[in-house]
Hints:
CATH 2.40.50.140; alpha/beta; 18 strands; 13 helices; 6-stranded parallel beta sheet; 21% strand; Rossmann fold; pyruvate-formate lyase- activating enzyme; 3 domains
Amino acid sequence: MLSLGCPKTLVDSETILGKLDPGVFRITNSVADCDIALLNTCAFIQEAQQESVDRILELVELKKQNQIRSIIVMGCLVQRFPQELQKELKAVDAFVGSGEYDKVSQIVSQVADGGHVFSVGRPGYLATAAEGRVALTPEFYRYLKISEGCDHVCSFCTIPLFRGKHRSRPMPDILEEARLLVKAGAKELVVTGQDTTYYGRDLYGRYELPVLLKELDKIEGLHWIRLLYAYPSCITEDLIAAIRDGEKICRYLDMPLQHASDPMLQAMRRGITKRKTIDLIKRFRAEVPDLAIRTTFIVGFPGETDGDFEELMEFMESMRFERLGIFTYSREKDSAAALLPNQVEESVKQERFEKAMLLQQRISGDNNQGYLGKTLDVLIEKADEHNPGCRVGRSYMDAPEVDGSVYVRSSKKFKPGTFCRVSITETREYDLVGEPV
Ligand code: SF4
């Protein structure tokens, strides 16, 4: 199984593997070693679509060389371009849409018997706790998908087209899965969805994320609960309080903002103004002093002027986000923004991207200096392959796979998945270095 894209897709991939009868199928993580290659794709933006197509073509090449027997392609790219893929990629044995995973065991058996399958229906699969998952991350941190799809209408985004409308999982089922994951060794649960703050709106008629977080906070043996993909206009006082008062809830908030100038926020259909965003961030920081905020911005959105971009830079300078990613605007077919006038030149997008990344590099370095001499809990992930006397871990400010690291200098061989208190002795632009206390 090769799983591309976001944590939601990774959970789907784990669920898919959980459906394969271990008495019939042996799962290997080496493509050279397999008969049937499973590829779960991403269609978020053109770059991700291209990466998915490139991986498919690599598998087709391996099949031509008889190194693998069959190819099954699944997920967002299939849901987004079903006909095109089926027409262009005849060597693929099965195409499975992002909502068809309840049929996956039978589809894999059909392919194993030499069959060809095309199964694309309603987008977005919402698994239950009973379905089980095969871990594709280290056991000590696991993603917990609480909902599927999205009801927002951001003009640059096509995700609702291939993930569908927002659907929340029933809370008892999420809690059951969380307990099972902790029993299986999870120390950190990373809460994910397209918009986690919208949780419960469909099922319970109100935002129920704060209640869910409080219930997760009661689970014995769990150390960290981390929240990803919060939508600014769906953040409530209850959520701020839940993060402030939670014993295990990381003081970490991943909240994509996308831009800071009002004309851009409006054209993006983000449903929030700059003023409201600043008030929200100030309120959150006042209530949760050591909060680490991760956000993302898009530069080069249609109509973005030098003035809009300067406003974004000033906003970054004043808000001083702990973690930040920048994307250049990607003109997605079937998105509303693709039809907007004043599309920005690629060279201008790139220039703005580099300027913003340079600014954030400085801000991140300055922020990190504030941790010199401080002591942090660090979740050890692995040995540092470049430095034998060192372990690599994460603090509460670091989500897996996207944020920085804490390098722990010690002769003691801390096991992956263990926590240790670390006194910070050195800081870098994106990472911290320290010694166990
Ligand atoms: S919140 Fe906006 S950007 Fe995110 S998935 Fe929904 S529509 Fe897309």
